[in-house]
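Example 3.2
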Amino acid sequence: MSRFLLRLLPVFAGLWLAGSPQPTHAATVNDFSAKAVLPADNVSGTSHFDLTLQPHTSRTLSVAITNTAKTAQTFSVQAANASTNANGIIAYTQGTHKTAPAHVAFSDLLSARTKATVTVLAGQTQTVSFTVTTPKKPWSGLILGAFTVQSLTAAQATQGQDGFVNLANYVIGVSLFENRAKITPNLRYGSAHYASHNGLPHVAVTLTNTQPVIIGAVHLTATVTNHRGQVVAHTDQNGLNFAPSNRFTYHLGTKANHTLAAGRYRLNLKVQADNGTWHFRRGFTISQKSVKHAKVAHFIDWQHWLWVVIDGLAVVIIVVFLLGRLRRRRL
């Protein structure tokens, strides 16, 4: 029987390797750098643009790109408005899309152009400039945006490659003020609904930071319960930050990625920040239609089921072994 078990070990090992994640080749492309060309009146001690500007004035903001590759590269430089992503972090991934039209956005100040393409020779540095024109009337609070820089040459060269490709993407922040008077933030609750995020079930909560100020150092706790009072989703996160004048959807994952049934639910959401505290207790309904339309992927935990099979085989082997010994004793 011991020989039989030894013969099975390679089979189990093969099954384990087949069910386990295998390393893949990851290519990294980072043969350039980008930085802000800071004007003399920029706030000292910062590496991004941080300026106080007068109404109805124009300024030039420049980004210097250095190509450290051995061949020429073409780069894309694009302006982006600050937004808050699904994880509750300030991001610059939505380009010039605006989520709070009542306030001035960074892209509104770039009337001439919001993106540029430039080719930089090997070992050279080239500057890309944008003209910012401030509103005619004074404004309050912060206008937050960024310039994002990426290599189009590298992106094209890595197309079709296997594994993960880590393309460098520089983000150069832009903070613009007319005055630096303190602004009181205001966070508003919008709605909650059932949705999928990256193929997993989530409760999507829409919130709006109505004021032109960052809500920073956020500690967010949220719990969702069903009509029986059972907790179906919970999170406790620190270090979040919400972009100024921004409406966003925060995604709250369900417990153990379990799908939710249609019915009534209750959300208890608390946000504690460095400049305010908000507490929302709201009920919401998940309809049968939203359950049907939520594109939730049904993942199979192969590793879990592999161990179930191995445990089952082990039990069978032990039972057969014990029965064999029992029969030999009777003989």
